[in-house]
Amino acid sequence: MSGEGADDRSTTRRRRVRRRVVMVSIAVLVVLGTLCGATFIPKVANHFGYALPGERGLPYKVHYNGRDYRNDLTCARARWCEDGRTPELRPRAYCTPRAGLNLGGGNSDTGLVKVDEVFTMFGPSHPVFTAGLVPRGETATNVIVEASDDCYLTYDLMGGP
């Protein structure tokens, strides 16, 4: 009879252990799901400077070469960006075609030089360019990010030189 009592105790212990494993697994999945969902919040994308997938997913601030650059026309689809636009910014187009970037013409055409990329959550990265080569030791005053085919956004240097 004492053998049956030992089996009951070990079965009960196994159930408790199984229950704990299931509860911990559920808790881990909930935390991971929450963290994954938070990555698609525009405020988080803007803070960390990565793009969200889809149209107008670029953040208002990008980081390149140890400096931050800002564009007031985009903010990873955050509502405050659209609501906070000044009357002068409202009619401006979201992006500029390559021909409208005023890179020069003829022999003085410096072109775009790819220098970095903006990471996109679950999508292709967006290339970051400078207009021509930036001499070593100097800081670019602006960078150009390709939002989509023939659609470019210019980001201006934040802070001082």
Protein traits:
6-stranded antiparallel β-sheet, elongated, 3 helices, 30% helix, alpha+beta, 161 residues
Q: Regions with pLDDT < 50 over 5+ consecutive residues? A: none
SSE succession? HHEEHEEEE
- Proportion of beta-strand residues: 15-25%
Structural classification: alpha+beta
What's the gyration radius in Å? Answer: 26 Å
Helix content range: 25-40%
Average pLDDT metric:
81
Sheet having the most strands: 6 strands, antiparallel
Q: Going across the biggest sheet, name each strand in turn.
A: 1-2-6-5-4-3
Label the overall shape: elongated
The helix count comes to: 3
Q: Could you give the count of β-strands?
A: 6
CA-to-CA gap between the ends? 85 Å
Walk me through the structure.
There is one protein chain. With 161 residues, the chain is α+β, with helices and mostly antiparallel strands. It contains 3 helices and 6 strands, in the order H-H-E-E-H-E-E-E-E. Strands 1-2-6-5-4-3 form a 6-stranded antiparallel sheet, covered by helices on one side. Strand 1 and strand 2 form a beta hairpin. The chain is elongated. The chain starts with a helix and ends with a strand. The model has no long low-confidence stretch (mean pLDDT 81).
